[in-house]
Amino acid sequence: MFQGRLSKKLVFCIMLISGVFTLLSTSYTVYHDYRNRISALEQQVKDIVDSYEQPLGVAIYKSQTLIVTLILETFRGLSDEYLAAAKDSDGKNVMTVANIEQDEIMGKMNALGTRNNYFTYKKEIDFGLSKYVTNGEVVVIEGYVGSIEVTVSTEHVKREIIGNIKTILVAQFIKTLIVSLFILFLIDKLILSRQIRIVNWLREFSKNQSIDPLQLRKTIHPDELDDMTYVINDMGSKIVSHQKSLENTVNDRTRELVVKNTELENAQKELHLMLHSKSLALNHIEETLSTALWETDIFGNIISMSESLDKNVLRTDSGTNVLRLSEVVSLPRSKNKDSFDKVLKGIFDSREPFTIHDTEIKNSFGNRISIRLDGRPKIIDGAFTGYNGTITDISSEKKLRMLAYSDGLTGLANRLALEHHFEKTQQRAKRLNFSNGIMALDLDFFKSINDNYGHAVGDDVLKAVALSLSDCVREEDCVARIGGEEFVVLVQGVTLEGLITLAERINESVRSLRPSSLPIERKITVSIGLTIVALNEQLSDALKRADDFLYMSKKNGRDTVSYDSK
């Protein structure tokens, strides 16, 4: 009995439920008994006070402290802790009777943990206008004569209840245990033993599938388990029959698979030859176009790449065999504000086609190569499975673009680059409604440097000034060299005050330059003219106005800044 796992679970559940129910019912009974006893004690106090109200009022009125004391002593047998006090009409204490110090009982009543162990009953004694005969003497009492206040501890009631709980719990536990065991015996006899027999038969059947059927009970009133036994026997016979049929079918299919496998091997050989020829042709096309193919999963891990890219890319030692696209491609160091992982995450979250022009890869020699990265999402059966795309070498194109848009000596933007940058800046200013500023700068007395120290020294000075200007502006601003010693600074999103501050900082920076090829006493300065560009203004118009202010600076003694103060 109770050997199976289900039997043990039933024993646990029935005992747990019975125990919880017994505990709840016992708790309710005990609590109800406790409240009844407390209510009886409170009522007893009220009855005593009501019965002694008249004599107590007369005794208080006549200041008969002995009689007051005797009346208050009647509360002594109600509790092991009590306090009874009688006060006259002026609130003065006539008599207090207690079996515990008054301060002690008041402290317990105010304490958080024991305040509920006491109750207090107070009654005001008011006779109106009454006559009473006491010891043959007629006493006339008028109005309010005083009060009685009784405080009684209920701790003895709680102790009695706790003592009864133990007896009740033991009796309830024994009763619950007997009933639970009886119920479990019936469950085991009627259900569990038969269920275990069915399980054991099924285990044996799963091993050899040829054992005798389950034995049915001889009864005129079959229950659900008898029906289950019949169904299992019928199912077992059908399984044996189907298994024999399945074995014959498997043998036939095995012979067919052998034939199909031979045909598949021959087709696979032909496919390998075809794919090899296609791969050779694709590698030739990639080398000709300087383009490589790549493919990633949804997490940006490369799952395939062109052979040329696989051989030449510089791999990082990440400790795993997984190569991420962000390990192959990176942003240029000058623009690497965020990791390329963050850039790719935003792209992969959007699941849109993309083209990133200004990216780089490191080849196996550690050299950085400028590339264009193109990608298209892979959608299979409506589900996003990653990206595939191309990496195109644009280093030669980038070099040509740099030659076309940069000054050969200083590396700054040239006039063509300035025009392109001005056009983009103006479009952005119109869209965001802010102002741009432009400065025209000219090196003071530069011709005398070339004449006195040579053109090589003049070139060093121009390079130093170009570097100083670049250090003074932000990355989004543009510094250009448009002539021999003429420079232009285009500043985005700036007020006139901010433009003046920047010009003064440039003057200060240039004054501090000390190229090694130039004598230390030879100072370098620049004259500056500046203006705010109107939203619809052309570069030529804004530059002409800045040039006018530049010539004003030269007339005013050079090494200064001029602008329209209106």
UniProtKB/TrEMBL annotation:
Residues 434-566 form the GGDEF domain. This is diguanylate cyclase. One of its GO terms (cellular component) is plasma membrane. Its cofactor is Mg(2+). Its EC number is 2.7.7.65. PROSITE patterns: GGDEF (PS50887). GO terms for molecular function: diguanylate cyclase activity.
